[in-house]
Amino acid sequence: MVEALSEAERADALDGLPEWDYDEGRDAITRTVVFDDFVQAFGFMTQVALVAEKANHHPEWTNVYNRVEILLTTHDAGGLSSKDIELADAIDAMIEE
């Protein structure tokens, strides 16, 4: 079972994720990504879905036209875990491509 990050681990992880915001109430990280249009947004979500399924760790997200809002937390751990940080890193790499 995956454990939630300690305060020190969380702080270190967040330093490496400047595009993500910390949601203290949910012990989660969030990011909003805006694309040129719906097709690009949906294509991005498809890429993330494949990585998330392979990792067996799935985001909470919404999509409205060209905007994708992502929230990552590990329900089994009761908060932010290394799985969230790994998925956030993978998502950032996709956006930078």
Automatic annotation (TrEMBL):
SUPFAM superfamilies assigned: PCD-like
InterPro entries the record matches: PCD_sf, Pterin_deHydtase
EC code(s) of this entry: 4.2.1.96
Top EC class, one word: lyase
UniProt cross-references to Pfam families, sorted A to Z: Pterin_4a (PF01329)
Reaction(s) the record says it catalyses: (4aS,6R)-4a-hydroxy-L-erythro-5,6,7,8-tetrahydrobiopterin = (6R)-L-erythro-6,7-dihydrobiopterin + H2O
GO MF annotation terms: 4-alpha-hydroxytetrahydrobiopterin dehydratase activity
The entry's keywords: Lyase
Keyword Methyltransferase on entry: no
Keyword set includes Lyase: yes
Example GO biological process: tetrahydrobiopterin biosynthetic process
Family: Belongs to the pterin-4-alpha-carbinolamine dehydratase family.
UniProt-recorded name of the protein: Putative pterin-4-alpha-carbinolamine dehydratase
Organism: Sphingomonas jinjuensis
